[in-house]
């Protein structure tokens, strides 16, 4: 078996990390791949770096476009794939050396599988996290089981440690409006279309997280608050597709609801950054699980985060 794997990498102002990412693709032990780089209007040297790899290795392709956001960039990449399988890499992360080889092992083990979910490792400037992966090869035809195993193995809705058969991607796109957890929604939608899903007992992806960002912001957000309305929409979309995956499984339905409630509380947290206090009041009226106590606790956490960030900026502790 020598399946061609398409790798999509959206790029925006990542000159510091881009070579590390592209080198991890170029050095793969499995060689039958194409890498579609979508330069989303970068203003630094990222476009030149992309062009450099394209000139030296024909497996790299680059699309230079005006800035439209990460979802639009990924959709652009999807429209150009020629491989039978597709995976995604963030431009400040990297694949492990044998990542694609492990995916192809899964394709050989389970010829009808449509989604392969690998393990990942998180690295911050101060620590290397525990490897998160399945302990053995796992195969299932049950959507509820796939959702359960995804949580147990810390795959969650992470798209970047997952390989998708191209045909199940038809009709599935990234929502250009949602820029937080948009990959989770995409992954769950693909899992819902898949009749067979397998879990790879190997780390395939290294996720770099800058631990200097305030809690809840994730990476590449430059301390800009996530849109309150967008966070709500993301929470609703995740809940909808995950409930479809859970089916009639009561325990999984309960898990999905608890995760939904946690995400909604995060939306409240975001509203503090945008000073959208009226929205907080409206949420407490609309959702019974959001109490005044929750709001006060989140407000105190918000104030603590702002103070810590201000201290680090003033005293150059980042």
TrEMBL record:
The keyword Transit peptide does not apply. It comes from the Bacteria. One of its GO terms (molecular function) is hexosyltransferase activity. InterPro entries: Glyco_trans_2-like, Nucleotide-diphossugar_trans. Pfam families: Glycos_transf_2 (PF00535). Residues 6-159 form the Glycosyltransferase 2-like domain. Keywords: Glycosyltransferase, Transferase. This is Glycosyltransferase family 2 protein. The lineage of its organism: Bacteria, Pseudomonadati, Bacteroidota, Bacteroidia, Bacteroidales.
């Amino acid at each position: 078996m020598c399946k061609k794997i398409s790798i999509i990498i959206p790029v925006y102002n990542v000159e510091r990390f881009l070579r590390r990412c592209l080198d991890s693709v170029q050095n793969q032990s499995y060689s039958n791949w194409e890498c579609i780089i979508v330069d989303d209007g970068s203003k630094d040297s990222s476009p030149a770096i992309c062009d450099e790899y394209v000139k030296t290795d024909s497996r790299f392709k680059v699309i230079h476009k005006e800035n439209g956001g990460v979802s639009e960039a990924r959709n652009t990449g999807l429209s150009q794939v020629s491989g039978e399988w597709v995976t995604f890499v963030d431009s400040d992360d990297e694949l492990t050396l044998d990542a694609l080889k492990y995916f192809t092992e899964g394709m050989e083990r389970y010829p009808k599988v449509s989604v392969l979910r690998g393990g990942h490792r998180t690295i911050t400037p101060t620590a290397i996290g525990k490897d998160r992966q399945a302990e053995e090869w796992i195969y299932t035809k049950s959507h509820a089981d796939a959702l359960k195993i995804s949580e147990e193995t810390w795959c969650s809705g992470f798209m970047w440690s997952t390989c998708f058969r191209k045909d199940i991607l038809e009709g599935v796109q990234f929502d250009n409006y949602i820029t937080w957890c948009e990959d989770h929604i995409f992954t769950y939608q693909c899992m819902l279309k898949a009749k067979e899903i397998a879990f790879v007992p190997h780390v395939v992806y290294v996720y770099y997280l800058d631990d200097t960002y305030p809690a809840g912001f994730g990476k590449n957000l430059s301390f800009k608050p996530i849109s309150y309305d967008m966070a709500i929409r993301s929470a609703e979309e995740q809940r909808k597709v995950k409930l479809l995956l859970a089916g009639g499984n009561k325990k999984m339905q309960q898990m999905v609801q608890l995760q939904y409630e946690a995400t909604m509380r995060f939306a409240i947290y975001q509203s503090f950054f945008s000073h959208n206090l009226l929205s907080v009041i409206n949420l407490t009226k609309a959702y019974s699980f959001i109490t005044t106590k929750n709001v006060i606790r989140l407000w105190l956490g918000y104030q603590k985060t702002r103070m810590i960030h201000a201290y680090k900026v003033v005293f150059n502790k980042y």
